[in-house]
Amino acid sequence: MSASLSRRSLLALAAGSLAAPRARAAAGAKLKIGLLLPFSGTYAALGVNIADAMKLAAREHGGKLGGREIEWVQVDDESDPAKAPGNVNRLVVGEKVDILTGPVHSGVAMAMMQIVRQEKTLTIVTNAGAQAVTGTLCAPNVFRTSFSNWQVSYPCAEVMLKAGHKKAILMFWNYSFGQESMAAFKEGYSKGGGSIVKEIAVPFPNTEFQANLSEIASLKPDAVFVFFAGAGAAKFVKDYADAGLKGKIPLYGSGFLTEGVLGAAGPAAEGIKTTLHYAETLDNPANKKFREAFKKATARDADVYAVAGWDTIQALAQALDKVKGDTGAQKELIAALESVRLDSPRGAFRFSKAHNPVQDIYLRQVKGGQQVVLGVAQKGAEDPAAGCNLGK
Ligand code: BEZ
User: Fold this and answer.
1) Span from the CA of 4 to the centroid of ligand 1 (angstroms)
2) Ligand 1, pocket residues at CB < 6 Å
3) What's the CATH architecture for 27-147+282-351?
């Protein structure tokens, strides 16, 4: 824990904010939900979709959860880990939110974990895939409705090997999520006999890819596996095609590479295969209802980020109903969340013992400007949750 956080926590203690959660839940009071999300920068569209889907789902529950009217408090985290302790404290200590949600960026999530573990704030991680959230830093009061890094990256190795791609180049934004994503991919790839020709780490959020793409062209790997997301992913996909690599060296990634960027990337994205726990073309009634409602409310197409926002509210609705909105009854609320079962737009959803989703991972391919599902890359994928022991 940082020295400044210690001082803040002492001040908070003096002000009574470290009191047991039960003391915070005033009967009939509004339910304060904090949203720690990027509303600016390369991940802005991701944050906006999560927030909009949460608010839409809440409206569908009559603007109330567990009988309590919702008050939203949102902070733009700018996807900046350095600003995360201050931003989290604003919501947890300053605003005393009942429930904290977000973030998108794994580095922000790591800083958030330090504080919410100490303050025992009920927290739902709505995107960040850092392994530690439901691994070494797992906590009874922390759940995740999105994915772990391992879940979306590991299965792609087998997909590439099955396609006969034995020599790969890895390229990624060089922060915790990118590093972990490559580690999970390499675990599967080396197990299956694949070898890595080169790893190219790009500082986050740089999007100057040309020199690296020239190097890829000269090294001629069988395929390339990458992590980029949001606006940076759209730029990468276009630059890859402009560099003449499309159609010559197959491009793969976790699904963030093509998620929510097909409009911006256009024909350059055609043919790219990715692994992810969602695809817009999934043919199930929950997905149809969700996509129609999101389009009507926002005039935009829903994506995997919106799914996490939507499911966050569905999970909270089920659990808060069970405890009649009493967020102070944290033990009971946690037990209620643990027993949540969702008919999610992504398919069946439940939380693992480590509080990470257990979910199918799909192999998708961009065809005709859509993510078409080619099959299930991993059925009921459950993160190994290394280092997590919640005593169950
Ligand atoms: C992350 O930092 O965890 C992340 C950011 C964007 C998309 C997926 C994961």
Assistant:
1) 27
2) 43, 104-106, 127-130, 177, 229, 256
3) 3-Layer(aba) Sandwich (3.40)
